[in-house]
Design brief:
By secondary structure, the protein is an alpha/beta fold. The chain has three domains: 385 residues, Glycosidases (TIM Barrel), CATH 3.20.20; 222 residues, Rossmann fold; 82 residues, Golgi alpha-mannosidase II (Immunoglobulin-like). Helices cover 30% and strands 25% of the residues. It is built from 20 helices and 32 strands. The strands form seven sheets. A nine-stranded mixed β-sheet has the order 15-14-16-18-24-23-22-20-21, with helices on both faces. Strands 1-2-3-6-7-8-9-12 form an eight-stranded parallel barrel, surrounded by six helices. The radius of gyration is 27 Å and the shape is globular.
């Protein structure tokens, strides 16, 4: 049956829809998700006015929701009247409908029927839901009932031509929308049903109990004795690594089950899900259970992310931070593209915290930043501000009294444009990147549960995994170089696409990843890798020499000494004169470690030293490629403190690897990104500064001639065509977004 379903699903390709959703979250009246108003038929007239206003502004879809508690108040008795009213109203206005499903708001009868289905924390505390987080779906009875709800909902909704598709799981975690602040280091789920599922996963991985005992250094005599580790010991922590890997794969399997449940009834409707934030800003060690974006994206037609650039902060996220979030979501979403499941529509609140204003210019910049990176849907959160809860008053596109805002009009104008140009944007893909940053969830796990910082201020290493990636991205963002993130498990498949791969904070690797890096360099790739590469393998075992797993041969050097530096800071004094823009004697800040690297190959040479004179960086050749091994963490250093020498270093890496820049800017710094749709190009040009300024932009487009228009106004754009380059000049207003459409001109 499962194989037959796979064939049915495969017959409908995710690229088939000819509709580009530009939606607002609206669930009927002023109810906030996942809540519903009690009388949908009584509110129909007011709802009709809202839906009409949404359409009048230019949006082509609404994203409504259903929670399990409201949709199945008694076992097998379904109530979908709210959705029916919204589908009818949307149909009248010519809008499509996307339905968000909330299983975390579960009906109380589930707990009564399955009293052993509660989530259990690592300390044994039983978490009884209070509207959220529901019940553990590893319980067979709960799982069967939940999937039956999805199937019944799909059977019901497929009858409506206005129903476009789903979001099957909003911001997936093991537990959602609830926290237990009285539980220190809470981690879920340790209920008997999750433990049984973990044992089944281990059986599949190891095959025999003897093999598991050998891997974990244990003496189990039956599978029933096997449980996830709760302690941190001085021995092996392979058991912890298996537990964290299980959580990530379990979340993926749970999403796939939801997908298959709805596809049986409605195989032609789009099924999606979206993360609270991409993995760049989460940790696989989180106790509430964080998903792996790459695993999740394989389970649905489109995966995506929430995007709240100001959330509830007095100062919003800066442009590079926002770009990294979107490019990470794009990278993990794959060739199909990704969805913005939630885009902040108004100022945010969390308790007493209130964000900075959200302006029309913000919404323009945020929306176009996602579109220009290949997003295939935008869902603004939300039409009305939150009416209840600790977010009350926040995140609305309009005011709670119904007043339409200028930011609603600004977003609506973009939505109108996308609706007119759907084919252009559905077919568009971001310009291919030639550089990539490796995302490696294993690097978070060195030491297992024992991750205590014993020296120096915690702030210097907290978040070092994220900061190591973000600092590198920040440098290349400033250079307007398209940058991918590549999952460590994809290196064998995808590494050959890139001229340059930067591997930050590479403390733990699999042998497969190390072999893929070796093949990449041997075939002509350029690899830059930071300190202590493959110190541990994916079982938590230390390598005989560092760099480990054979990378010492690829990098032409080995570690001879390593120390944590006083104050967790150091400097690498550059010694080479053949890196463009980088002079001998320049001091490059590093973080946490000083790793002394000794060349071991005739093709290797020292290019930087620590203040002691010890070798700090080694360049080498291997096969047709080349490598640079660094004895500290330079990405983290740049993220924590801007430094001109480090910025020049990362720019020099691009030149060293022969990376071509698709856009060069002079005058005021602006961000430039390109979409390609056949031979057409869409240039997204973002002036992030708070003051007006003039800039000149040179785009590498290929052989012309070209025609250029302002995509939003249709007005011709003056430019200088020096094939294969196009030169644009403009005086930008503060926070201005400029979208230029370039098409080949008749010769």
């Amino acid at each position: 049956m499962r194989a037959l379903l796979a064939l049915v699903i495969a017959a409908w390709m995710p690229g088939a829809p000819d509709f580009f959703p530009m939606a607002v979250w609206y669930g009927g009246g002023k109810a906030r998700a996942p809540m519903l108003e009690p009388d949908p038929h009584g509110g129909r007239q007011a709802w009709q006015r809202d839906v009409h206003q949404i359409r009048e502004l230019g949006f082509n879809a609404i994203r409504c929701w259903i929670d399990w508690a409201s949709g199945e108040p008694e076992p097998g008795r379904y109530r979908f009247d709210t959705l029916d009213v919204l589908l009818d109203l949307a149909s009248q206005e010519g809008l499509k409908v996307i339905v968000q499903v909330y299983m975390d708001a579960a009906p109380e009868w589930v707990g009564r029927k399955f009293p052993d289905a509660h989530f259990v924390a690592i300390n044994g505390h039983v978490l009884r839901p209070e509207a959220a987080p529901g019940y553990c779906l590893d319980h067979p009875g709960v799982r069967k009932a939940a999937l039956a709800f999805y199937s019944a909902l799909a059977e019901h909704l497929r009858r409506s031509p206005a129903f476009f598709g789903w979001d099957l799981w909003s911001e997936p975690h093991i537990i959602n929308w609830a926290s237990a602040p009285w539980l220190p280091n809470a981690e879920f789920c340790f209920c008997p049903h999750t433990l049984a599922r973990f044992r089944a996963w281990l059986r599949k991985k190891y095959g025999t109990l003897e093999a598991l005992n050998q891997a974990w250094y244990r003496r189990f005599t039956s599978w029933e004795e096997v449980e996830p580790n709760r302690l941190s010991t001085i021995l092996s922590y392979t058991d912890y690594l298996d537990w964290r890997a299980f959580i990530a794969h379990k979340l993926g399997e749970d999403l796939r089950d939801r997908y298959e449940a709805v596809k049986r009834a409605a195989p032609d409707r789009v099924a999606t899900s979206h993360a609270a934030a991409p993995n760049l800003f989460t940790s696989p060690l989180a106790g509430d259970g964080s998903p792996d974006d790459w695993i999740m994206s394989r389970q649905v037609d489109y995966y995506g992310t929430s995007f709240y650039p100001k959330h509830s902060y007095p100062v919003g996220r800066d442009p590079a931070f926002r770009g990294a979030l979107l490019d990470f979501a794009r990278s993990s979403g794959g060739e199909r593209g990704f969805w913005i499941g939630e885009l902040q529509a108004g100022f945010g609140t969390v308790g007493l915290n209130v964000s900075a204003w959200v302006t029309p210019q913000d919404l323009r910049m945020w929306t176009w930043s996602a579109l220009i990176r290949g997003a295939k849907a935008i869902n603004y959160y939300a039409w009305y501000p939150m009416s209840t809860g600790y977010e009350s008053g926040g995140y609305g596109m309009i005011e709670l009294d119904g007043t339409v805002t200028e930011r609603a009009r600004a977003a609506g104008r973009i939505a109108q444009l996308i609706s007119r140009q759907q084919k252009l944007f559905l077919n568009a893909r971001p310009q291919a990147a030639s550089v990539a940053i490796v995302y490696n969830p294993l690097s978070y796990m060195v030491g297992g549960r024992q991750r205590v910082v014993t020296v120096g201020p915690q702030s210097e290493v907290a978040g070092i995994e994220r900061n190591s990636m973000l600092g590198v991205y920040r440098a290349w963002f400033a250079a307007n170089v398209p940058t991918d993130f590549i999952h460590i498990d994809q290196l064998a498949e995808r590494a050959g696409r890139y001229k340059l791969i930067y591997f930050p904070y590479p403390l733990m690797l699999t042998q497969a990843a190390a072999s893929a890096l070796e093949s990449y360099v041997r075939a002509g790739g350029t690899l830059v890798i930071e300190a202590r590469a493959a110190w541990n393998n994916d079982r938590g075992r230390a390598s005989d020499r560092v760099p480990g797993l054979g990378l010492d041969r690829v990098l032409g050097c080995r570690e001879v000494m390593v120390q944590t530096t006083p104050g967790l800071r150091t400097e690498l004094i550059w010694a080479a004169d053949d890196f463009a823009g980088l002079r001998p004697g320049e001091r490059l800040p590093g973080r946490l470690y000083e790793e002394v690297l000794q060349p071991t190959s005739n093709a290797a040479r020292v290019v930087a030293r620590f203040s002691s004179g010890a070798p700090a960086a080694v360049v080498s050749r291997y096969g047709a490629g080349k490598t640079l091994a660094l004895g500290s963490f330079l990405g983290a250093a740049l993220e924590q403190q801007p430094d001109p020498a480090l910025e020049r270093f990362f720019a020099a890496l691009l030149e060293w690897a022969g990376v071509e820049r698709p856009a060069r800017v002079s005058g005021s710094a602006v961000e430039v990104r390109l979409l390609e749709s056949g031979r057409e190009r869409i240039a997204g040009i973002f002036h992030h500064a708070a003051v007006a300024a003039e800039a000149e932009i040179v785009l590498a487009l290929g052989e012309g001639p070209w025609q250029a228009t302002d995509l939003e106004t249709g007005a011709p754009v003056a430019f200088e065509d020096r094939s294969p380059h196009v030169r644009l000049k403009k005086r930008f207003d503060p926070q201005e977004t400029w979208i230029v459409h370039l098409v080949p001109a008749a010769r």
